[in-house]
Amino acid sequence: MSFNYSPKIVTNGLVFYTDPFNFKSRDRSLGLTGGTITDLTSSYGFEGDFLNGGPQISDDYKYMTFDGTDDRILFPATSVESLQIQQPFYRYKPKTFTLSAWVKSGSTGAGVMFWGGGNDYFLKIPALTSTTYTEGVYTGIVGENWSATTPTQASKDLPLSFEITVDSGGTITKAVAETVAGGSFPDNEQVIVRISGDTIGGTTPADDAYFLWRSATSSQNRWGLQIFSTYSMFISDSIDKGGFNTDRVGNEPNEWNLITVLDEGQVVSGSRKCYVNGVLVNSSPVAPSLPSFFNGTQMNPGTSNSGQVNIGYGSSSSFGVSLDGSLGPCMMYDRALTPSEVLQNYNALKSRFGL
Fold first, then answer.
1. Alpha helices, DSSP H only, in the chain?
2. Terminal alpha carbon distance of the chain
């Protein structure tokens, strides 16, 4: 992955990056309000719309200020399938990730810096069976509503087809609905769904796969980096949601600070971390209070509600708060950055904010 911009932030695993100071991210011929901002990692023009007249771009183009009422940026700005690139934070939340943004301390009140989510139907992974399959993305896969323990659910509908992804190691990493049938859907985890093995790179019946059925809820399927009296990282598997909080007052040495939170995707102490200006200030609890592990959220266009990314708004009734304050560059990675990489990102941009 290569980017034609500087300074040299870490680009390995970078899947979302907006920067109003960069010509390629924002057209300076436009006014300081309205218009769009472009994700610099996308070759498809993945754009976010400035909604409700804001936010306001600073005169020097270094940051954006949100009014705390209704300003926000919504990605994607278009519903064209070719522009809805298959990447984390739009189609799905990876198990390991990093969220990072420059925040102006003091003026930033309650709100959400960026949040991804959607309402979707999917099969819980890992599968109940452990068969290895042939690598690939399998589409148009039909699932059979099969359950020996809850036969009353057998008459309930399933989506018409699923998209199932198998990684290079033969493990199913994604099983999400492509199209949705009408009628009454099964209750969560009360139906076992059978996928014929020969449709996902195996044989049948020896390699048939069995999954627990899941359906997302709008209020739970929201996650990201949130600002109140704390810096909070909320993570979700579409059904359950958990938080990881870091005190703000004791961890804001400057007017502008780079806040970075990450999840290493392991049920071990310290797997979730918060950095301020490249310095580790908080990590998840030690045993026995280990952080719970969440599968990646599954989101596809064409289901009940495609996933979207917001900057400045929580995008849900449960998190319907707007950011009151200023943001600089916003970054998302599909992996957990190392301590040296977090520090590299801070050093790359700190001079812009007088540090």
1. 339-349
2. 29
Q: Taken in order 340, 292, 305, 34, is the CA torsion positive or negative?
A: negative
pTM of the full predicted structure?
A: 0.81
Q: Quick one: CA dihedral 165, 171, 174, 179, positive or negative? A: positive
List pLDDT tens digits, range 138-184. Answer: 999 999 888 755 555 556 788 888 989 898 999 998 888 887 777 77
Query: Domain 14-119+218-353, CATH 3.40.1440.60 — does that match?
Result: no
- How much of the chain is helix, strand and coil, in % rounded to 5? 10, 40, 50
**Integer Cα distance of 350 and 119 in angstroms:** 38
Sequence-distant (6+) residues with CB within 8 A of 121 are 159, 176, 177, 180, 185, 214, 215, 216, 303, 304
Domain extent listing, the chain: 14-119+218-353, 121-215
CA distance 232 to 241: 12
